Structure formats: C-alpha cells, structure tokens
Amino acid sequence: MSAVEKAFHGLRHMIATGRLGPGERIPPESDLCEELGVSRGPLREAVRMLSALGVVEPRHGSGTYVSQLRPEDVIRSLLLTFELLPLPGLLEIYEIRRVLEAHVAAKAAARRSAEEVETLFSLIEEMEATDDPTKASELDHRFHAEIARIGGNPTLASLLSVFRARSRQYQVFTLPEGPEMRQKSDADHRLMATGIADRDPGAAAGAAEAHVAQTERWLRAFMPPVEEEGVPGTAAG
Amino acid sequence: MSAVEKAFHGLRHMIATGRLGPGERIPPESDLCEELGVSRGPLREAVRMLSALGVVEPRHGSGTYVSQLRPEDVIRSLLLTFELLPLPGLLEIYEIRRVLEAHVAAKAAARRSAEEVETLFSLIEEMEATDDPTKASELDHRFHAEIARIGGNPTLASLLSVFRARSRQYQVFTLPEGPEMRQKSDADHRLMATGIADRDPGAAAGAAEAHVAQTERWLRAFMPPVEEEGVPGTAAG
DNA sequence: TCCCCAAAGTCGTCTGATGACTTTTGCATT
DNA sequence: AATGCAAAAGTCATCAGACGACTTTGGGGA
Questions:
Q1: What are phi and psi of A65, to 5 degrees?
Q2: Which of the two ends of chain A, N or C, has the fewest CB atoms closer than 10 A to its terminal CB?
Q3: Is the pLDDT of residue B117 over 50?
C-alpha cells in the first residue's frame, strides 16, 4: 500500500471508528505523520482527498476539522466534477431527475405550509416578469430548490441541486427559441405550484415530471456544446 | 487564490474545455507546474483531489490519465465517504432508495430478457439455499445490482450501488432475528422477480418499494451502531 | 525474429526551510 | 479590574532539491 493510501485509510478509519467526530479538529500534521508512518507530502495529499470529498475542511493557520458528515455535504462534493461530464451521460441523469423531482413535488404537496405556497408563487411572478435569461435561470433554480426544501429531505434536495446545476450549464433560455421555451416553462411551474397549493401530490408529481421531461427534450433537440466553464450566462447564482 | 486552488481549477479548466479529453494522458508534473505557476507539492495535491473525485487516475511510472468521465465513475467516488455518514442521514437515503429501486424495477420489468429472468431466479435460489449471512448479503447485493443493470441506466445503477453499500454495513442478517428477516427478504425478492418476469412494471415497482421500506423499518428498529469499518461480516464482496 | 536489459520518462516519497495565517498569551494602559 | 494591543506559539501552505520505484521504450545480442 502506498504512503498516500496508508494516510487516507488511516484518517478514514479514525473517523469511521469515532475517534474523530464531526466538527472536531484533527491532530496537527506532524503528529499524524508520526502516527501513520508517512511524511508530510503524502499526508497532505490524503487530507486533500478527504477535503475534496467533503469529509474534512482545512483552515489555514487554525487546523483541519472534520465536517458535519451530513449526506448533503458529501453529495455537494459532486458539484465541481459533474460539470465535466459529457452530454451522453447527462441524459441518464435526466431520467433520475424526472423520478426524483416528481417525488419531491408530491411530498411538498403533502407538507407545504401557507407561507411556502406564497413563496413559490412570488418566485413564479418574478420569473414571469423578468426579461433577463440569467435572472430567469437563477429564479428557476430557486423555485425548484424551494420545492425540494419543502419536500423535507435535505439529502434529496442536495442531490437534485447537483443534477440541476449540471443542466443549467447549457443555458437553453439564451437560444433564439428561448422566450418560447420560457413561456412553456412558466406554465409548467404554475401547474406544479398549483398542485402543491391544492395539496394534490399526484398533480404536483405529474407536473414536475412533465416539466423535467420537457427540459430534457429541449436539450436533446439542440444539444448545444458547452465550450467554456464559468461563462457568464444562465449559470450565474 | 491558493496554489492548490490555482492548480485544481487550472486542471479542471483544461478538462472542461476539452484540451484534455477522456482517457488522455495529462502533461507531466514538471510541465504542469511551470504552466500553472505552482510547485510540485500543491500540484500533486490538486491531482489527488481530482483523483479522489474520479476525474483522473495517476499510474505510477506511466503518467496521469483523465478518466472516461462517465457519471457512474464520478458517483462511485462517493463509496468510501458514504460509509462515514452517521445513522440519521442514512434514513434520508432510504427514502431516495425507495423511490429509485421502485423505478429501476419497473424499467427492468419492461426491458428484461428471458436470460436475465433466469439469472434473477438462480440468484434467489442460491440465496435461499445458503446459511451463511455473509454469502446471503453478497448474493442480495448481486440480485439488486442485476435488476439495476437490466433497468438500463448505468448512472442510476451506480447511485443505487453506493446507497446499498452504506446500508449493508449494518449487517442486519447477523442479528438474532436474522433468519426470520431473511425469510421475509427472500419472499420479497421472489415478488420482485415475478413482477419482472411477468413484464408487470407496477407489480415489480410495488414489490421493490415494499422491500426497501421493510429493510428501513428493520434498521430503524434495531439501529445497531457500526463499530468498525471493514469488519468481516456481511459487508464482504 | 525474438528476448533481454539498459536507459529514459514519470510518478512517489522524504527532508529541510520558509512564509502566511490564526489563536493564545501576557503585558501595558485605561 | 477591564480592555486593548502586541508578541509568541501553533498550524497549515509553499517552495526547493534529491532520491527511489515503476513503466515504457528502444537497442543490442542470441
């Protein structure tokens, strides 16, 4: 086993066995090097790996801390890498999104409060009022995130958030057909919000699934290649 | 921006823009250090981060290669960290599993071939025939993985595989109540396989959802703490 | 033609030193 | 006594150089 693996599994073991708990500071590098029998280089690489996976968080000058180890923290670590996936795989992700967005919409319909319905409709109105595709995309994200939050499962909300971020890269709303798409999209949103407001899980789920399926069809039809990451488009926010 | 971040985002950018494609070998460390303006330490840490996330794969003596960038590769990177999550989060994951296992079972029912049905039932018979909880757990895993494979969405299969691996750590079959549970579990499996054999998506989905829900109830009831990772139990395989 | 080995290329590890940042400590001032 | 500030300690971040381990390549000999 290489030194990096030794350090990685050693640290993971300390966390798995509870010797290092969530939020706790791990021993300084020099101590860990001695205990794990590796030098600082490999140890730091192992810590970086755990950091990339959302398990620990180094703070310059202070120490390295174990994260809260919530599933949503770990899932969020997929964000930066999902953006690298080529298009074919994205379509597989859409199938999962369809199922899960429908599920959270149904759960949201069963759990929503009056204030939450209020929030959803005000987001829709903002969306319909703006002409800026960037702002529209950002509001779209917040609308779906709010429904996922109401659904009551933070892990699921985090997972869907990662999936949506990958989709948003393609910025379909900035295409020539954008306005038309947005009109259809707005109508879908109203259907979803209405289903939730009516406490009708079936209606909400159906509307959500149809909405995702529609987005998928658009993407399939145009398949615009993403030429740049971080390009100032609808990916903002 | 720190040197590690500079290197990490620099590399990610090279992949995102297509300068480095799937399967391709990235430039040697010394070249990258010069281009990115960092020394070897931080560069190696950045490469390790991408490696932990399933984006690149270093090969000693040969070079570092970009992975195939399939979603299932990236999702698999969650395997080692999901095992660290405390129990409360696990229950949120069960809700997702319930929805997705039902979905793949339905899709499997629609897509299955005669040979695949054969495989499922032979796995069930092996499962029913063995007394070894470890072997039973391994066969259980293969049974569910096979259904997910038949479902036709590798990304979804990979995601479910990660979720199941986390659950298997608890080894409910080794409890005193184990044999009883296994009997119920076997019956569930037959229901699922029958639904798939009959090309009845509704039946298959219902059986799958009930099966997952049952497992979740067992876990909720006993909540045995996991004291060791890699303990020789049902986690084998 | 085939086999073997030497050399080059590349990643892996160690060591030592220095810089940057945070937290703590202790002292001087109010 | 309370407060504020500066020094010091602790910790992570980075650089540089050297050597080891492994893989691949290519040439030389059988």
A1: -120, 145
A2: N
A3: yes
Q: Strand C: which positions are within 7 A of a protein CB?
A: 9-17, 20-23
Which of A81, A101, A228 is the mutation pick for testing B, counting most B CBs within 10 A? A81
Residue A236's pLDDT band (boundaries 50, 70, 90)? very low
Indicate the pLDDT class of residue A223, thresholds 50, 70 and 90. low
Backbone phi, psi, residue A58, to 5°? -75, 140
Domain A3-69: which CATH number of 3.30.360.10, 3.90.1150.10, 1.10.10.10, 1.10.357.120: 1.10.10.10
pLDDT, position A226: 46
Task: For chain B, give every domain's residue range.
Answer: 3-69, 74-222
Distance from C-alpha of A122 to C-alpha of A115, rounded to nearest angstrom: 11
Nearest Cα to Cα of residue B75 among B20, B148, B135: B148
Question: Whole-number Å distance, CA A89 to C1' C8?
Answer: 39
- What is the end-to-end Cα distance of chain B in Å, rounded? 42
**Average pLDDT of chain A?**
91
Handedness of CA A152, A153, A154, A160 (dihedral sign): negative
Q: Which residue is nearest to nucleotide D11 (CA to C1')?
A: A61
Q: How far is it between the farthest Cα atoms of chain B?
A: 63
Q: Is the pLDDT of residue A235 over 50?
A: no
Nearest-by-Cβ selection for A74 from B69, B85, B159: B85
